[in-house]
Structures
1.
Amino acid sequence: MVGITNNTDVINIAIAGVGGQGVLTLAEILAKAALLDSHNVRVGEIHGMAQRGGHVVCTVRIGEKAKGPIVDSGTAHLVIGFEPVETLREIHLIRKDGIAIMNSHVQYPVAVSMGKAEYPSEDEIRNAIRKFTNSIHEFDAMKVAKEAGSSRSMNIVMFGAIIGSKITPIRKESAIQVVREAFPSRFEEINVSAFEAGFAMITQFMKE
Amino acid sequence: MTKPKDLLENTPGKKVLLLANEAIARGVLEAGVRLVALYPGTPSSEIGNNLTFMAPHIPNFYFEFSTNEKVALEVSGAAAVAGVRSMMICKGPGLNVAADPFFSLAYIGVRAGMVIVVADDPSMWSSQNENDSRYYALMGNMPMVEPADPAEAKDMVHDAFELSEKLELPVLLRTTTRVNHTRAPVVLDIIKERPKTVEFEKDPFRLVPIPSVARKMHPKLLAKIEKAKEIAENSPLNFFEGNGDLGILTSGVAYNYVVEALDHLELETEIYKLGITHPVPEKSMVEFLKRHKRVVVVEELEPFLETHARRLAQLNEVSVEILGKEQGYFSRVGEYSPRIVIESLGKISNRNTRINWKDIDKQSEQIPEMPPRPPLLCAGCPHRASYFAIRTATRGKAIYPSDIGCYTLSISPPLETADILFDMGSSITTACGLAQVTGQDIVASVGDSTFFASALPGLVNAVYNKHPVSLVVLDNRTTAMTGHQPHPGTGITGMREEVPPLDIEEVSKGLGIKYVKTITTFESMAGLVKEVREMVKWTRENKSPAVLVSRDPCALLTAADRRKSGEYPPKYYVDTEVCNSCKRCLNRLSCPAMYQDTETEQAVIDETLCNFCGTCVSVCPQGAIKQEEK
C-alpha cells in the first residue's frame, strides 16, 4: 500500500469540489458507511451561501480520537478532488504520505470564462500537487460516471475510489449497502456500477 | 441520506448519524415540545427544514415558518407563557431582529419550558457579521447552554427545557456553525407526549410589563439568575477533565480542539469545560483558578469567559495568570481549528508541534495562481436575468440597494447590482435615505421571502413620505438561500398545509403603492428591460415609490421538478457557424454553465449544467445561441 506510514488513531479525508457536484452527499454516505462498520466518525459540512456554485470542501474523520470535524493543513490522509483546480486549492491539507485522488474533468470558473483569470495547465496543476504528495491518482470521473449511466453519479465513482484505496477501515460490502439504501431505487443500478467503476479504477492505479 | 422520517423513528437506544441541526430537530420531538416558530437562517436552517416535514406526523405539535424572527419569538414565547414547551430558532443576526421581545420575555418568564436556539457564525460562512450572541444572555439575564457536538446538541435540548422549567425563564441554546454543520453519531431517546391544549391563566400583573410591574420584575429576574448560578455549580454540563499544572477554560466547539491539541502536544492539563455559559458557576470557577498558576481560556469570538475569569480572579484576589485574547494568544476573529489551538498552547507551554506548518504554508504560497471560485447565482437563476435587465435599463448608472438572499451575489461582476446592504429589509429603507440626499435614480431589489419578512414597514415609509424609489421584487417563489422554505407568498405552511398565498402585487397596492406591475422573468428580456425603464421613469416623474415584481421560480426548484418527471426541454447550444467569439454572453451574464472553448474561443454551453432559462439567447447579438428542435 502506498502512503500512510505512521500508525494513526484517526483517518482524515478532505473532499473538495464545486457546489452542486455532490461533495456533501459523498461526505455523508462515507460517514454512514463508517458508522455501519461501528467506527466513530465526524463530518464537517458547508451549507448556505457557500454552496451556490462556489468552492466547497467537506471533511470526514474516522476513528476513536476524532472529536471535532476539522482537518488542518498537512493532516489529511486522503484528498479527494472533484475538479483539478479545486483539488489544488485544498492540497495543502494533505500529509506528506497522503494520497490525492482527482477527477480530471474541468469545470471552468466564470472568472476564466470572462477572461479575468487563467485556468492553470494540467502540468502546472500536477506539478504543484506533487510538491505536497507523490501519490496522486487522476482520471476522468465524469466520463466514468456517464458510462455508469449518469453524470450525477460522479460522487459515487469517487466513493468507490476512496474505498478502493483501502485507506479507510470501511468494508466494501458496507459501502455498497449504503449506496443502495441512500438513494431512490431507480438510481440503485447506476450508483452501484458507478461505485464499482471507481473502485476498479483506483485498484488498477494502486497496482501500477 | 437522513430524511425527516428517520428523525421520527421511535427506536430509543439506536445510534444514528446526524447533523447537529438534525439532532436538535430530533430533540424537539423527544422533549415533548408543543410549538416551534422560526424564520430560516443559516447555519440553523436544517432544524426547521426537518421539523416542517416531521410536523404533520407528530400528534399535538405545531410548527411554523413565521414571517420573521421577532414574530417567531412572540408566537413561541406566548405558547410557553400559556404553559406548553416551545422553541424559537434563529441565526445570530436573527436574534437582533427578535431583541425587543427577547428582553421582555426574560422579565415576564414562562410557565412551561422555552428554549431559544441561536446559531452564531464565526468566519461568517453565510452571515453579514460575526456577532457573539452570548452577550444577549448576559444583557438579558437569560441562562445559556452551549453544546460542542451533535450528541450534546440533542442532550442539551432536554437539559435546557429542564433548566427553563426550574427557573420559569427561557433558556438560550447557543451553537456555532461548526457545531450546526457537524455530522456525528447520536443516540436516540424516548419520545415524550405533548398536551393537546392548555387553558390560559390570566395574570396581567405578571404578563404585562407596564413600568410599575416591570420595576418589580427586574429584581425577581436577578434572583432567578442567582438561582441559576447555584444550578450551574452542580450541573454535570460543567465538568473538569484531566490533571496538570496548566488549566484550560473552554466551551462549545473549541473544547474539541483543546482535546485534540492536548493529544497532539502530549500535554497534561486540567480542562474546565462549561456547558452552561451563563450564568457561569462562579464558586467552581474561582476554585479552578486557585488550583492553577496559569489558566488559558480557549473560546471563539469575543473574550466572554475570559472576562468572567479575570473579573472573578480580581474579585476573589486569586493570583493566577489568565492567558487568552487580551494578550493576543487567540484571535477575536474567525473560527478556530486544532492547529490554532495547538500553536497557541505550544507557545504557552514551550512545546513543539509535530507538524511543520511553516513549511506547508510556504509550500502553499508557491502554488500557481488559481482562478477564484466564489459562490454565484446558479445556471438558470431568474435573478441573473432580472439584474441583467436592471443594469441594461439603467445603463449601470443607478444606485442599487440590495437585500439579504441569494440575490446579494449580484455584487460580483458583471452584474454589480448590490451597492449597499445593512440587514433584512434594508433595500427599500436605504433606498429612501439615498433618494433624499443624492437625487440619483435608485433601483432597489428584494427577494419574496425578505419582502414579507422585513420590507413592509419600509414600503409604508416610502409611500407616506413620498420617497422616489423603484423596487424590484425578485419573486422566485421560495426562500432559496436557506434551503427552500415556504413563506407567505407560496401557499404552503410550516405544517405543509395548502393555504391561499399572499400576493405581492396586491399587498403593495394595499400599502398604497400607486405603480405596481408583475412580469414573468424569463418571458422576454426586451420586455423586462422595458418594464424596468418605465418604472424608473414613473418614479422620477411622480416622486413616489414603484414596485415591479419579477416572477419565475428558483432554478433549483425547476431542475428538481425536471429530474423527478424525467422531462427536459430541448437543449440550448452555440451554433459554431454563427458565433463570432465576441464573448458578450460570457462577459455579461457570468453563467456557470457557459465557458470558452480554449481553441476556437467560441462560447460553449455545458449541457450537464445548463438549466434551460434561455437568457443567453437574448444576450447574443449574432443570434448564435439556439435551442434544438423538439
2.
Amino acid sequence: MTVLIEPENGETGALDCVLPLTAAQSGMWFAQALDPLSPAQNTAEYLEIDGELDAEVFARALRRVTAEADALRVRIEDTPDGPRQRVCATVEPPLTVHHGLTREQALEWMRKDLTTPCDLAAGPLFRHALFRVGERRWLWYQRIHHLVIDGFGYSLLVRRTAEVYTALIRGEDPGPRAFETLADLLAVDAEYRASDAFAADREHWTRAFEDRPEAPRLAGRAALPSRTFRRHTTHLAAATTERLRELATLTRATWPDVLIAAQALYTSRATGRADVVLGLPMMGRIGSVALRVPGMVMNVLPLRLTVAPDATFAQLVRQVVLGIRRSRRHQRYRYEEIHRDLGLLGEGRGLVGPLVNIMPFDYGADFAGAPARAHNLSAGPVDDLTVNVYDRADGRGLRIDHDGNPALYEDADLAAHQVRFVDLLARLADADPNTRLAAHSIATAAELCLVRDEFNRTGRALPPTTLIGPIEARANRTPEAVALVHDGTSLTYAELNARANRLARHLQGLGARPGALVAVSVPRSVELIVALLAVLKAGAAYLPLDPDYPGQRLTYMLRDAAPVCAVTDREGRLPGDAGTPLVVLDGLDLAGDPGVNPGRALTPAHPAYVIYTSGSTGRPKGVVVPHSAIDNRLRWMQHTYPIGDGDRVLQKTPSSFDVSVWEFFWPLREGATLVVAEPGGHRDPVYLARLIRERAVTTCHFVPSMLQVFLAGPGASGCAGVLRRVFCSGEALPRETAGAFARTLPGTELHNLYGPTEAAVDVSHHACAPDDTGPVPIGRPVWNTRLYVLDPAGQLCPPGVTGELYLAGAQLADGYLQRGELTAQRFVADPFGPPGSRMYRTGDLARWTEHGEAEYLGRTDHQVKLRGQRIEPGEVEAALAALPGVDGACALVREDRLVGYVTGDGPSPEAIRAALARELPDHMVPSAVVPLPAFPLSPNGKLDRRELPEPVFAGGAHRRPAGPREEALTRLFADVLGAERAGPDDAFFDLGGTSLLAVRLVNRIREELGAELTIGSLFEAPSPAALAARIDDASPVASDALGVLLPLRAQGTRPPLFAIHPAGGLSWAYAGLAARLGPDQPVHGIQARGLAGSAPLPRTLWEQARDYADRIREVRPHGPYRLLGWSVGGILAHTVAVLLQEAGEWVDLLALLDAFPAEQWRERPAPEEGDALTAVLRMAGVERGAERTREDVLATLREAGSPLAGLGGGTLSRIVDIVPNHARMMREHTHRRFHGDVVFFTAAAPRPEHWLTAEAWRPHITGDLENHRLPCTHPELLREEHVDRIAEVLSPRLARREA
Amino acid sequence: MTLTLERIRGDVADCLGEDPADIPVDENLVDYGLDSVRIMTLLERWRRDHGATVSFVDLAEEPAVESWARILGVATP
C-alpha cells in the first residue's frame, strides 16, 4: 500500500468559513449524536473500472474535485448555538493505493473500513482507496459520512472525477468548477423554511398523519438503530425487469411505482395489515440548484397505502402514483420534522415501515476510455428494512439489496423476504394487472407445499369408535383394577362401570339417548364421574354446568341447550326456573337397575358433550363436539404419551373447561387410575403438591399461570420423581415457566398443547426441552388434523409470517348449539381440503417455524384468556351495558385482571360488580369497574383503549387495623393487590383479587407471618380482619396481643430484634417495620406489663428494664442482642442494653427512635391525667378535642375506628394509667453508660419541645451517635414512608453476621 | 418528426398519465407528478427520437414545459 496523499486537517484558517447545518444535515447530525461511535452513518460505494488507471493522475483529479466540492470539505463544530459546519478552505483527500490484493481481499478491506466510525469534529468526513485487483481492473472505494452526501451526490462526484481524470490524462483542460456551493444549499433551505410553502407542507403532513398510524413492520416490532446492517443482494432477471416495465406502461405508471406497489402488497400480507406506511427516499432536487451540489439533500417521505384484498393490482399501482404525486408537492418538508410534529419522536415510535429506495441514476462513468460501474456498499443507517433498487441501465435487469437492521432481522429472514419479494414481482409481472390482489400469495411455490402439505401430514386410519366404547371395553378387560380414588373412596373398574350403568338406565328412562343432551351439575366427586359416564353410556351428550356459576347463567344455559334432564348432587343446586326435570343423586336409589352396559344406537357422529364458552355478542354459546372428534384426540394422546395401569391421572380441572374431558376419560380407557381432587383444590398449590405426592400422581395438567404458581410453591420440587408428565394448555406457556419447570421437576416431561373447545380440546403439541430458548411453540398438528395460517386474503402464510390460525380435520366440533349463523361464520369451507370439508377460524394469531411447528402470537380480536378461561370482553360489555343507567361499556384485561369501564349515570362500581356477579361466572366479573364521564376517542372517533385510565384498586372508607396482625395483613393485601390502600374489612376479591394473587398472598403471609393458610381459608375469610382472627385461632402464641412478649415475626435465622414499646405500652406499631426487615429477621415486640390484667405498674425504669432483660433472655439466652425503642421505649432500650452489657453480654445494635434521655425531661412538669388522655388519643392518630374523661376518649376512639377502641375499656383504662407512669419514671431515671454506638432517628419536624436533641445522649454512650433526620413529627415516625427509611438504615446492620 | 413545444407537452402528459390540455406550459411539473424516473424516461425518448443532447440535470433544474422547450432548443411560437 502506498499513501499518495497524506491526510491533513487542511487548516488554512483565514479562508475557512463557518455555516449552520441544513435541515437535512441536522437530521443526520442528530442521528449520529445519538450514538457518536456508530459507523452506521458511513455511506460507501466502489467503482469497478475496466482498464488501466494512472493512480498519480487519479489523485490529482480527486484533489481537484475535492477542491470543487465544498459541501464535502466540512468539519462539525459544537457551539453554544448548536452544531456548525466549518468549510475548510483546502482538504487533502485521504487516498491509499493498494496493489496485489484480490478483488475479494479488497472488498474485505472495504467492509472493514466501513466499520470505522467517523469523527465529525476532526474530519475529513470522507476517504478514498484504489485497488489494483487484476490486469486492467481497478476498484475505486469512497466512504463518505451521510451528513455530507447522498446517493445522487455520489453520482455527481463520480462523473466529475471521471471527467477531470480523462481531461488530465488527455492533457486537456477539465473545464471550470462544475458544482454549486454549500452556501447555495443553505440559501435554498433558508428560503424554503421562511416560505408559506413550509407552513403549508407542515399542515399537509400533520393532517395526513393526524391519526398517527402504527406502521406495519415485517419484523413485527421496532428496534433502535444498530451500528451496522445486514444485506442480501439479488438481481431481477432482465426479462422480468422488461415485463415489469411493460406492466408499468399498462398501468400508466413507471417501474418504480410498480415496485413500490409490490412492496406494499408484500408488507400488507406479511404483517396482516391493510394499512401500510412505506418510506420513500426522495432525491429532493428537481427544480433546485441542489441538482449541482454533491451534498446531503435527500429526504424520506411516508407513503400511506390501503391494500384491500378485493382491489386489483392496477388499482394499487394507481394509488401509489397518486399518493406519490400528492407527497411530491410537499417533499421539501423533512421526515424528521414530520416525525417530531406527530409526537412520535418522544414515544420512540417510527413513522414508516420498510423503505423502498429506488436509484435510477445513470452511472455510466468513463475514465479515459475505461468504463466503470458503481456498486453500493452502504446506503446509510437502516432503522428497519430498506429495499434498495438500482437500475444500472446496462441491460442486466435490476439489482435489489435488502438491507435489514440486525436487531430485527437474521440473515435467513432477509433472504426469505427477498426471495419472496422477487418471486412475487415475477408473478405480478406475468399476471393480468386487473386480477384481484387476493389471488396473489406472498409464499413461494415451495413454501406453499411446506405449509399446506408437509407440515400437515397427519393422516392416520383409526377404527370408528366413540368416547365411551373403549371405557366399557376396558372395564371388561380389567374389572378389578382401581379406576378412581377420591378422598377415602376407591372404586374398581367393575364397580364404577356398574354404578354408571345403573344411573345410565335411569337416565334412559327420562329420555337420554343418542342426540339428546343431559346436564350435569355436580361438584368434583366420585358422583360426578359416575354421572358423566352414565350420560355417555345412555348415548346422550353431557352438558357440564359448573355448580359455582350464578343462577341466572345456569338458567340461561338450561333454556338454551334444553337438555332432557339435569343430574345434580342435591336439591337446590340448580335454579328451578328453567323447567328442566332434575335427577337428584342424593337419596336416589338405583339398586333395582341392572349394572350391565345399557343398549344404545350410538355412532361416532353423535355428540359426546356440549361445553359453553364466552360469546362476544353477550350470550355464551354451546360447542357441540361429536364422539369421533374426541375419540381421535384421545387415541392420538394415548399413542403419543402412552399410559397404562401404573399411571395415575389427576382430575382437577372443572368439568366446564374442556381440558377436563381428557382428564376424565383418557385414564379410564387405558386402565390407569383417576385421582380426583377436592372441589376448589385446583387453586391450591400446596394441596396439589401434597395430593400428587401422596397419591403418586404420574400425569396432570396445569394452565401455565397456575403452573407458575405451583412451581413457586413449597411443595413442587417434592413431586419430582413422582410426576412423569405434565400437560400445559389454555394460554400461552412462557419460556420462563418452562425453564422453572425443568429446574424444579428435572426428569418430568412438559408438553405444551393447544386447541380451542371447537376442536376437541387440543389440536397441536410440543414437547418442551430443558435447554430450548425463545417462545414455546404450540407445535405440530395431532392426527388427522391440519393447521393453516392464513393472511387476510385467505392465502397461506409462509413460515415466519403471522396470520390467523385455521383448523381442519377430524377434531372439529359440529358447531354451536342452536346458532346456525355463528356456526357458518366460524366453520367455513376448507379450500385446501377435500370437497365439502370445513375449517374452523380460531381468531388466534400464529406463524409456522421453518421446522413445521406453530407459534401462538395473540388474538385477532379482543378475546382474552384469564387463567386459561376464555373471555369475550363483548359478553362482559353487554352485561355492563344492560344495567340501568349505563350508557357505554368497555371491558379489557390489565395486568392479569379484568377491568370494566362504564359511562352514564349507572349504579356505583360496587353495585355494578355485585350485579354482574349474579349473572356471570366469577372469572368474567371485572375486578374493578371504573366510571368515566366519557370514553377517550382516537382522532378517527374510535374508542382508544390505550387511553383508558388505570383502575385504582382500593376499598371504601376504612377503619384502622386492630392489632399487629391485622395491620400486617392489611399491608400485605395492599401490596399483593397493588392497591393504594386496603382496609381491614375489605374483601380480597372485591379489591381486584384473583386466585393467582390469592396464592401469592398466601405465600407472603407464610413468609412474613409464618402462618400456614390454605387458599381455601382466604375464600372463607376474605378480609384482613377475618384472616387475622383465623390465624390467631390457629396460633395460640400469637393470641395474646397484650402479653409482654409480642412475636411480630417469630421465624428467621438471624439474631432477633427486640422492639420496646412507647409510652402507651403497646408494640403493635412496630408491625410495619417487622414486615420490612425481611423474612429472615425475627422481630419481637416488648409490651408493658399489666396491659391485660391488674399487675402492679413498675416503679422505676430500671425495674421495668430488668424485667424486660429477663424476658429477652428467655427468647435468646445470649447475645448478640439487637434493641430498638421509640419514645420512652428508646430510654428503656438503652437501659436494657446497659443491663445486658453489665451481665457480660454483647449488644450489637441499639436503635433509638426519637427518644431523649431523662435529663431532657426532668425539669418539665409530668403530664396530668388530662395529658395522658391526649397521649392516648395521639397514639390513635387523633388530635384531642373536647374529650374530658376516659369515657369521652373511648367514645372518640370507637368513632375513629381505632384499634385501641377494640381493646375494650379495661385495657384502655390501664393505658391511661401507664402513660403518666412512664412520664414519671422517665423523669426520675438516672442513666448509666452504654458502651457502643447508637443509631438515632430524629422526627425533624419543628415541635414545641425545641430543646430535645439527640446530642443529649453523648454522655450516656461511649461510641458514635449516628443521627438520621426524618421529615415528620414524633407521632408520624412509624408511618409507611418513614418506616421504609428506618428499615433501609437498619437492614444492612441486621444482615451483618456477628463478626 | 421535430421536437416542438406541443410535442414536449404531449410526451410529458403521456408520461404523467394526464391529458395534454391539463398540463400548463409554465408550471412546475413536480406538482403534476414529475419525478426523476419520468424525466429520465422522457430524456431517453428525446435522445432516441430527436437526438437531444441535454443532460438530466439540465431538465431537472427547470421542470416546466416552456423551459424545456428553451433548453432543448425548440423555438417557441
